[in-house]
Specification:
It is built from 14 helices and 17 strands. The protein is α/β, with parallel strands linked by helices. Strands 3, 4, 5, 6, 11, 12, 13, 14 and 15 form a nine-stranded mixed sheet that branches. Helix 2 runs parallel beside helix 7 and helix 3 packs antiparallel against helix 4. The two termini are 38 Å apart. 48% of the residues are buried.
Length: 422
């Protein structure tokens, strides 16, 4: 499989880490499949609770979206808090808000383990249209009145305090958000998990789980077998390869990022050093790296074939937002699949002895760590908080294995067209 981090800024600046080799039996209490944020946080939390854990990653830690995303830490879910309350009522909205807005498990893990991942505070949602800004103002007022959650409404003529771009009609600045180096965060979680006793297997593909409902079930790894009581499937965009019935709930969207060369005018572009994402359906999102590069994600592709030149694909979006650096040198270009659900809410649950969490729909840098820790709680016998996320609505994409993706692509293209039409 081609490594999506092959020309990534994150890979070029990643901390060194290799798992310790181990001999002996492949028996454990919990087998985790997938070495991204969800799997790593679940493995670490399970080990902290006294479970013996083996984590299996087909490639290497951070290979998937966890190691190559935009690094944006955005509190909440893809639905706003007011949308959640309207759909589910006050009690469930309260529980979801406490988990997904107030309980920042990423910051807690970084602090607890001293993870060096360039963590910075502040996130700005930028309004693409005046209508979007009106909706943002209304949501900010709802958050303040209903949850005493403080965010800052930024009028159009005040946007220069955050971003040197004429495109946007205002925005909402959330000091609880932020940004970080995602691959170094994943490596930090892996180091903490290994110190807690988690054993790692890299370079092995999980082929089949036999969940017999017993205290000793089987996971096949080619010529090896891992025996475990519980399994956690945290393979996200690849979940259908291991469990086809779960693969029906997501489709992969290809997303691409670039990193410029270090910019002399970086601080002038983003004066508050906040991460920024705009309100379009096919959004632009960007931030500064620790060494003053612009890391920018823009556009989506619905074909799994990457563009021949990722830098050339993303550059027009950079130029639209920041015409003053339209010709800036681009040092890195990378990308890959992000798993998206029908309603853009994550699909989390349990089937017998198998727990799963996937479909974070491009909004998972914070909630993946939370999901992993909630799985560990549920496995230890306290499922109330796990059930809050597991109770989110979900439905498979229509069309079956042959037509599911083409039909989803048509729908996504329609929403992308609405962006261009305003």
């Amino acid at each position: 499989m081609t490594d999506p981090l092959a020309n990534s800024y994150y890979a070029a600046t990643a901390h060194p880490w290799r798992p310790r080799a181990f001999d002996g039996d492949l028996e454990c209490d919990v087998a985790v499949i997938g070495g991204g944020f969800t799997g790593l946080s679940a493995a670490l939390a399970c080990a902290e609770r006294g479970f013996s854990v083996i984590l299996i990653e087909r490639e290497h830690i951070g290979f998937g979206a966890s190691g190559r995303n935009g690094g944006q830490l955005i509190p909440g879910l893809r639905w706003t808090a007011s949308e959640l309350e309207e759909a589910f009522g006050q009690d469930r909205a309260d529980a979801l808000f406490d988990l997904c807005w107030r309980d920042n498990r990423v910051k807690a893990r970084i602090a607890k383990h001293g993870i060096d991942c360039d963590l910075k505070g502040g996130h700005l949602e930028a309004a693409w249209t005046p209508k979007d800004f009106d909706a943002m103002q209304g949501e900010a007022e709802f958050l303040a009145a209903r949850f005493d959650y403080k965010s800052q409404v930024v009028a159009k003529d005040e946007m220069g305090t955050h971003i040197a771009s004429p495109l946007y009609h205002g925005g909402i600045f959330d000091p609880q958000g932020g940004h970080f180096h995602p691959l170094n965060y994943a490596i930090g979680l892996a180091q903490a998990a290994e110190a807690a006793g988690v054993r790692f297997i890299e370079g092995k593909k999980a082929d089949l789980i036999f969940d017999l409902g017993l205290d000793r079930n089987e996971l096949f790894l080619g010529d090896q077998t891992v025996w475990a009581e519980f399994f956690i499937d945290a393979t996200d965009a690849w979940i259908g390869q291991l469990e086809p019935q779960l693969g029906r709930y997501t489709v992969p969207i290809m997303n691409y990022n670039i990193a410029t060369a270090p910019l002399a005018n970086a601080d002038a572009l983003l004066p508050s050093d906040a991460a920024v994402a705009d309100s379009r359906f096919v959004l632009n999102y960007f931030r500064l790296s620790a060494d003053k590069r612009l890391i920018f994600g823009g556009g989506e592709r619905y074909s799994q074939t990457p563009p021949r030149d990722i830098a050339a694909f993303v550059r027009p979006f950079v130029a639209q937002v920041f015409p003053q650096i339209a010709d800036a040198k681009i040092d890195f270009g990378w990308g890959g699949a992000v798993a998206v659900t029908m309603n853009r809410l994550p699909h989390i649950g349990r089937d017998g002895n198998i727990f799963y969490a996937h479909g974070f729909s491009g909004h998972g840098a914070l909630v993946t760590t939370l999901a992993g820790e909630l799985i560990a709680e549920a496995m230890a016998g306290t499922a109330e908080r796990f059930d809050v996320l597991a109770g989110l609505p979900s439905q498979p994409f229509p069309g079956g294995p042959w037509f599911r993706r083409p039909l989803a692509t048509l729908g996504l293209l329609w929403y992308a067209l609405r962006d261009r039409l305003g």
